[in-house]
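P.,

For your records, the input lines for the assembly:
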Amino acid sequence: MSSNSFGKLFTVTTFGESHGPAIGCVIDGCPPGLEIAVGEFRADLDRRATGKSRHTSARHEADEVEILSGVYEGKTTGTPIALLIRNTDARSKDYSKISEQFRPGHADYTYWQKYGIRDPRGGGRSSARETTMRVAAAVIAKKWLALHFGVRVRGYLSQLGEITPQAFDWNAVEDNPFFWPSAEQVPVLESYMDALRKSGDSVGARVNVVADGVPPGWGEPIYGKLDGELAAALMSINAVKGVEIGDGFGAVVQKGTEHRDEISPEGFLSNHAGGILGGISTGQQVTASIVLKPTSSLRLPGNTVDIEGNATEVVTTGRHDPCVGIRATPIAEAMMALVLMDQALRHRAQCGDVGPVAPLIPGSARSDGGHG
Ligand code: EPS
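Structure tokens returned:
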């Protein structure tokens, strides 16, 4: 299976299956000298993990990272960083009944058509378990970006089914299992999810992710546009069916006078563009939004066929997320951080010598490749 690597100068290759002995990644191109300790992976891995609330899959993985290479005496050496996480709580018998059936809405069918073979246990390689390694790799990217540019990437759940936030407070986001920005609504989400879980059905969700502190200049036209690479990276997350940058599809009803972000000596007057023009960062907040489809592993019977093409009914048992979007916030952050890290290094490689080009709009950090 190819296409398991991502990025040009900061490359991440992930490997492993949901019910195999381990999952892992190799990160190549990380600048040397970055301090990194095993304990630093904990917070983001816990934010993404299953089993942290009754609203996600009940699988309890330890998610203990082992650093196999690329770090010596607590610092990156510039050589490939290999990270490994052993799977400790796979329950493969849940999958024995569906190993010869295709779940409607699942990658079961397309993997079978493409490869002629599949590992049905826990979804194998198509499982959201794979996203663990993206989050682990992004811990390194987030740290480097923060240290060198003051970049901060964060996200929140911006829609659960039909429910949207009635207020917005970043401080609320990390205080509830949904990454929801309005504390008062958390009980509403709790009862919505409890009813959904009892019904056996699943629901979609929307996650917004933003990066503050990105200097102007990151992104490579024409085929390596920052928004193009962000869209591809975010779309590569399991279950993602839609990606928007800035106002996204909202732009269809806007007039040019409304959409353009006017500029004053004090800075931009709005940010409909999502901090990206011509595929290059403007120095404003970079904003993106993704929609995740409802999970396809359901205990409610659905019509399908088996691998012989016979009509049958499929029922999925096991420990599935009724809304996979609930755990997607750290994953979306991870993909944005990985794209930004790669683009930062690419910008430094090609344009590190480009001097200041006045005027620099206030609020924009200087794009000097981190050297001055
Ligand atoms: C997943 C199905 C479930 C989830 C898994 C993602 O696997 P299992 O049936 O083995 O419990 O628990 O999520 C994780 C293990 C994880 O770490 O994200 C799927 O089909 O995507």
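Two observations worth noting. The pocket of EPS is lined by residues 18, 50, 57, 59, 61, 90, 94, 122-123, 127-129, 132, 238, 297, 318-320 (CB under 6 Å). The chain has one domain: 90-351.

Regards
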